[in-house]
Give the backbone structure.
Amino acid sequence: MHVRKLLVRLFEYALPLPILLFGLSVSCSAQSVWQKMKQNVLQQQCQQGLQKACQALEQMKQKQAQQPQPGQERHGDEAGGSRQPLTDHGSQHQGGGNRDESGPIHPPQGTKVSETPLAPLAPQAKFFISPHGVHVATLENSGSRAVIYYEGVPGPKFDDIIGGSSNLGGEVSVAFSPDGKRYAYCGRSGSELVVMVDGKELMRSSESLEGQFNGSSCGLGFTSNSRHVFMMQNVRTSTMRGGSFTRFFFDGKPSALNTGSGTRADGNVGGVHLSLSPDGNHYAYVATDPADEQKWALVIDGKAAPYRGGNPQWTADSQHLYTTLVNSIPGKGQVAEAMLDGKPILRADQIRLHLAPAGSMLVAEVNAASYTPRPIKFLVVDGKKVAGSEIVNLRGVNFDQVTISPDGKHYAARYTNAQGHQYVFVDGKAGQEYQNVDHLVFTSDSGNITYTAFSNGKNYAIIADQESNTCFTAPSSPVIDTHGALMISSAGGRAGTICGLTGGAPAIYLDGKTLPLPNGALGASDLRFSPDGKHYAYGVQLQGGLQRLVIDGVVQMNSNLGTPSIPRAHYVFSPDSQHIAVDSAPPTPTSEFASGIFVDGKYSPVVANPGMKKLEFTADSRHIVWAQGVPSRDALRIFVDGKAVAEGDTAVSPNSNESWWDMAPGGSLSVLVQDENNLKRITIIPSNETSVASLSGGGALVAKRD
């Protein structure tokens, strides 16, 4: 691991933040603001070693000396004269400004910045980051032994650290709980496997792969509630019939039955295929006799169930278990049986169950006559056959993509008819026929089904039974899962997509209505909704290549998202849906390299950077926080509300999927950095002296028309 030095530097940024209003022509006062902005950018670039910027800065100072402007403050020489914060008299002090890049950082009064050493750095060290809280476990050597450090505290010394991942992939790793507060790993001590959980020994096992341990000896994981830890352990012995098996442990206790690790007679791969209850307190799996794959049993919470059943699925309330069982009947072939807690509820030739994410709805795909010349298939919902769902399953006629709404009260499926065309069947009603339909998704309020369609060479989007104009639905956002087509709001029941060029002008299809792009727009991207679903935004490309942010259909002229070849960071909504921010270039492009941030309609210049590495509102929505690179060093500087508060050498690539940055529910931020000796966690609690309002001028998320 490359060693980099952590510099927590304390200096104050005091860049004046211009107030740019929509719909106003440039006035003399606006020009003076732009002059200040330009001077600040030149100062930044000069301090970064750009000679051209230093020359332009000197020329600007000479002009200012010849034609002084009323109210403009004079500042110390760039080489080291005294520097006073630039403030607008009568207004709150804003972030950015005249600064010495090599000087210390002075966080605003009340800001709490703490550092926690997490592990010493050593050659070939490997570290693992929790999904939340930036907790770090590090694998290092202590002499000839292997040690896991957690939060800077070394664990026991082992001959080897092995496994640690529930996928049994063989890679050495540490398992973290979903909440990030617990951890587990395995070590080898002589001929024993030792399982460590939260720094304490949970269990030991001498079972191995004919005397050896590897990654498949220790597959660890935590349940969804972070309370329980489980392990899958592959074991092999030459003296045992069947050769190998998988043993399952829950909180260190072995389950009643082991299961074969090979390929069963039905073609399925053996091993533990775990079904965990939504609340994280129960589990079930099918155990196959390692010596005879024809013999198997259902295991529930560590005990063999008094009945047999496969494909276990827990109900949404975690209180009941659905299973299916297939038996061969002489002269009749196979008969499937669906069971609830071991009691039969449905029999047919073939059954596939779909459980609702909430409530108790059960949707079953039923093949009732699979072994007849005209095989019949239909839907059964809560034990009742759905009228109109029956098909003759021949020549491609079928249905699939069974989908249940978030509230568990509605269902949909994709049907294919004898002509090869498709339609959506929702709550017993068939929809419009197309050559193809795909991407069935209910809106967040469960009120409508959305999907894409293709017919006669044209693409369409369907929202709330409303068909769009011709619409090629390219994924709306590169950073958010769009279900492959439409963007679904997390609340409010809204849906939309960007319609690309398919014979017509690009447009936005939103909530069943087609909205044209703003005048002069060539295209759009990154459509998303605010958390409450009341606002939407996207980036729009204008003539000349400039890109701007659009909020609720209104172009934000104070934003500049760069060009397609040099884009800025993606925009973010605040958790309370009252604010929006985006990494922005100056609204009016200049020849100088400059950077800023657009917050709630206002652009504010910041230290010049090639792009923010991270941009996020705090959990309480009161502050906007970002990270940007430090010139000429592989380091990150953290800003809160436009003020630099901390700096550290990069420990993990900012583009990594690892959780090197984590915003806590209480509003604090944790960031992983390092210095030449240690990995460190910087924890930042923002000051009450600054806020989103102080950066934006007190505004909130309101789209103002030009």
About this structure: The helical segments are 28-47, 51-66, 692-696. The chain has three helices and 55 strands. Residues 583 and 597 are 5 Å apart (CA to CA). The first strand starts at residue 112 and ends at 120.
